[in-house]
Amino acid sequence: MEKGTAIRGNFFHLLKDPWPLIEKESDSAQFIKDGLLLINDGIISGFGTYEELSSRLDNYDVIHKPDHLLVPGFIDGHIHFPQVRVMGAYGNQLLDWLQNSIFPEELKYRDRDYATTAAHHFFRALLGAGTTTCQAFTTSSPVSTEVFFDEAIARGMRVIAGLTGIDKFAPDDYCISPHEFYEESKKLIEKYHGLDRCLYAITPRFAVGCSEEMMQACCQLKKEYPDCWVNTHISENPSEIRQAKEEFPDCFDYTEVHEKHGLLGPKFTAGHGVWLSNDEFRRFSHAGAAVCFCPLSNLFLGSGLFRLGKAMDPDQPVRVCLGTDMGAGNSFSMIRVMEEAYKVGLCNNTMLDGSVNPREQDLGESERNKLSPYRAFYLATLGGAKAIYLDHLIGNFVPGKEADFVSLDLQAGQHALAWHQQLTCLDGVPSAIDEAVELLFGVLACGDDRSVSETWIAGKCRYQSNDRGVE
Ligand code: GUN
Ligand code: ZN
Question: Which residue has the least CA distance to atom 9 on ligand 1?
Answer without folding.
Answer: 328
